[in-house]
Amino acid sequence: MKQFDYVRPATVAEAVAAAAQPGAVYLAAGTNLLDLMKGNISRPDRLVDVTHLGGLDQIETLADGSLRIGALVSNADLAHDANFAKSYPAVAEALLSGASAQLRNAATVGGNLLQRTRCAYFYDTASRCNKREAGSGCDARDGENRGHAVLGWSESCIATHPSDFCVPLVALDAIVEIEGRNGRREIALDDLHRLPGNTPERESALEPGDLIVAVRLPPAARGFATHARYLKVRERTSYAFAVVSAAAALRIENGKIAEARLALGSVAAKPWRARAAEDVLKGVAPTADAFQEAAWRALSEAKPSGDNAFKIELARRIVVRALTLAAAGTPARIPALPASPFASTSGALHA
Amino acid sequence: MPELNLSSTPAHLRHGSNIGQPLTRRDGILKVKGQATYAADNHPPGMLFAVMAVSSIAHGRVISLDVAAAKRHPGVVDVMTPDHKPQLAIDPEIKTNPFVFRMEVLQSNEVRYANQPIAVVIAETLEAATEGAVLLAPRYETLPPLVGLDAGESYVPPVVGVGNPTENHLGDVEAGLAAAEKQIDATYETPPQYHNAMEPHAIVAAWNGDSLQIDMPTQGLMLSLARVAELFGIAHDKIHIRSPFLGGGFGSKGLMAGPPVLGIMAAKLVGKPVKLVLRREQMYGPVGHRAPTRQRLRIGADGEGRLTALDHHARTVSSAFDDFYEPAADASHTLYAAPAIRTSHDAVRVHTGTPLFMRAPGEATGSIALESAIDEMAWACGMDPLAFRLKNYAEVEPMTGKPFSSKALRACYEQGAARFGWSKRSLQPQQMRDDAGLLVGWGMGTATFPALMFQAEARAVLRRDGSGAMEIGAHDMGQGAWTALAQIAADELGLDIDRVEFKAGTSDLPDAGIAGGSAHTATAGAAIHSAGAAVIAKLADLATNDERSPLFGAGNAGVVARDGRLIRRDDESRSESYVDILARAGVAEVEARGTGAPNPAATEEYAMHAHGAVFAEVKVDPELGQIRVSRMVGAFAAGRIVNPHLVKSQLFGGMIWGMSFALHEEAITDRRSGRIMNANLGEYHIPVNADVPPLDVITVEEHDPHVNALGIKGVGEIGITGSAGAVANAVWHATGVRVRRFPIRIEDLLTQL
């Protein structure tokens, strides 16, 4: 593989300085980056290893009731933190439905946010890909694209963001804390990932050197704990990205939905917050009709980017199901098959 | 003393003390501890690393490689290209025998499929070689590739599989269809699949003058050795191959492919040992795969549900430069008693690597189509699928009219159905739901696989210290040869398994043939049986011809070998230990060789097949279309079971593979470039543990006096057949939707539910 420099900064400030230079990338667990490097898709000149930076592996409750998750907390540690799973069950369920146990043990919160698309044409360096090489073209557009985007795509790029974790996070208004060359700032997770437009190579709002140091869930996010689910349809039960997924969270008061949160995964270049659907649910009873209406609203702007029209119909049905499951109440334990339509199947032993 | 071959009347042998025992695999501890040495674990001193550069186009030619850039990279030692390589002794395009397939070993600039090797970079480290391969930055003249089952003009290949006729006829199919009261005409498609053994193809090659040491996983030590010998023009005895363990083969490591030859060439070029290991994506091209098929089945039945005709046509593909044809339609020769059967094949050429044997080649692809069609026919006749199969049970092999050497399929149906609870199945689809509201469906399929035998030889030794040895160049691909063959050896030598030194897995041992066709235990076992019988006969001669022995006068067939002693058959109180016999005779050891081979008279007279019945339950989410298998029961009759524990594991593996065939596996080819877009284990979906339901395997007792002396039929591949169709049929029963393109996908059900 290409030779590269490897640096291990002692402080966040040193890390930011080291990573701000052209050709530098951050290395956390490397569950995505190392594969990209081995496949010659990413050819960085310098890896800035942040895994030894202090203070980024804490889960802490702040005075205002927010939860702050350090960027280096592993996916597994976060999902298995009992208080976390109790307060944000859909997030824990999403985490446990992602990748494999081995990958979850390694993968970090910050890294998960910045994982790259799984578009096969992005990974295939013999194919044209505007995301990998700006302006080269998009071979996915007329290629094998049954898994590609149905929302927010452009002629330049029809790739999807593959994260499970981000889907409930964006539904719960998560905030990303960033350390950059000009100090610390924070943005909504919903603003972190960009839709492709004409510049699919620019995937996020991050600037050179920017380091995600934490993800924060605001106080209101806890309010959905009793009615929150993540649902993921996939082609095998583990170690598979979603065909389509959805996070649904409801705050139910006096038999009515006081507030609804809904986001879809694997349908667009970013975790897709469905605010129009949330709006129609506000103040209504949690009925099948209401959920159908929400599903139509959520997908009203969807259009196939190839052989993937089925994803639109599938997404509608997943929205209805996720809302139905959320309305029924968060189960006391995360199902043995997290986020699976087969969660209730007896004999399932695997998490 | 003449060699005695007692294999037809093994009077002095007592079976059962080791054969039939569910021993755990003897190599298990080594593997669990990481101490089993696979090919790529070898690091001879001075070894260099070779990495293949492979073509990114599927058709055309390489017009430039930046060799200078690669060589400038620190650590790169040399770059092997068509212009800079050791000469081979023969043109690799020449097919010297029917088991030679064309390979790409840099003989030209031509590119005939994506992922074809186009250069090899040799370096001091794997990393340097890998980067060197990138720096070659090949440029191509690209020609349009042929892709898919409709790529071009179809043709009728001369043979399919290994020398099978392309077409077979029994009776008048058209008349049978015309006379039928019920007919179906259905077309099924199966995708290209890749073996994806856990262990990638690997070689460590070291030349010492004109002798060659090779570490390489192979299912055919002597076939590989012979191919290397002819390619490099060296004598067989100058080559030594070690292949003690394979991390899976499934047919892709049976015949010598291009990449290991490149490893040997690279070692020759640089004059040092070289290791070459394929990257996962490089396994999608030069090392074989299962070809896609499109199969049309036309079936007729009379008013009673009796078949009147069965017409099975299969379209498949071969590469643009060589010939292998998935014999899918041949699956219809043996199972159902139609008075008129026609099977036929045609093919188109595509720009892929040549398709090859992949676990149950032809049987697996043909089975899912045939078992689906039989299920459709049963439904058309308003009959239970099992009742329909029993109604059309073949008492003799339909296509040939030969009697079966043994066939316990009826017992498989009965025992499998009873264990599964099949009698409670509703005839109509879409009738069952579980407590959670998921659709539940039950399906079944019949399993079959031919009981084959190849040629093998073994050498048996009995030593003065009371121990024995059995030597045979057999192959353990994970199926358990180290254990099962040692069990046979122990019984044949009349010793406890711990007293037998069992040697296998290297090319200096007697030729065990190929570990393929589900025939390895039968073939190697027959050779072991024969060698063991011969060495015991020699020992018995020493005793029974010596008046000082208590066995004097018994004759060498008048004794039984057991627990390290020869025992007089007609008087068990008279016996003598091997130790005493050899000590008195003053010899250190006796040795004998034996062979295993098919019996031509028996194969002429009988149809020989293993059989089984697989029952599957699936659950389908009625809104989301997601499918999961919730339980499977397989009942199999495969002659004598040497090790029930390992056999069960083999059958589990086959059933999981069948489930994978129905629901998961598919190589996705870009229709424009001919490149495979999911050439990795993340996106080429094989089942994970959580997909695998509780599996139940019943081995039905079966005695077969004809297949071979030990009565073994083999279980390596049969588990796939029947299982794939059972799952597909269960999906129909759950949903009422008949999907005829595999794997069955969410969108196939979504809009129809």
Secondary structure: number of strands of chain A: 12
Largest sheet of chain A: 5 strands, antiparallel
CATH class of the domain at 226-328 in chain A: Alpha Beta
Summed over residues and divided by their number, the pLDDT of chain B gives a mean of: 96
Whole-number total of structural domains of chain B = 3
Largest interface: A-B, 42 and 45 residues
> Helix count of chain B, per DSSP?
16
Q: How much beta of chain B, percentage-wise?
A: 15-25%
From the 3D structure, determine the CATH topology of the largest domain in chain B: Aldehyde Oxidoreductase, domain 4
CATH class of the largest domain in chain B: Alpha Beta
Largest sheet geometry of chain B: 7 strands, mixed
For the secondary structure, the number of strands of chain B is: 29
CATH superfamily label of the domain at 226-328 in chain A: CO dehydrogenase flavoprotein, C-terminal domain
CATH superfamily of the largest domain in chain B: Aldehyde oxidase/xanthine dehydrogenase, molybdopterin binding domain
Class by SSE composition of chain A: alpha+beta
Model regions low in confidence, pLDDT < 50 over at least 5 residues of chain A = 347-351
Q: Report the principal-axis shape of chain A.
A: globular
Count of discrete alpha- or pi-helical segments spanning 4 or more residues of chain A: 12
Query: What is the CATH topology descriptor of the domain at 226-328 in chain A?
Result: Enolase-like, domain 1
The N- to C-terminal Cα distance of chain B equals 75 Å
SSE series of chain A:
EHEHEEEHHHHHHHEEEEEEEHHH
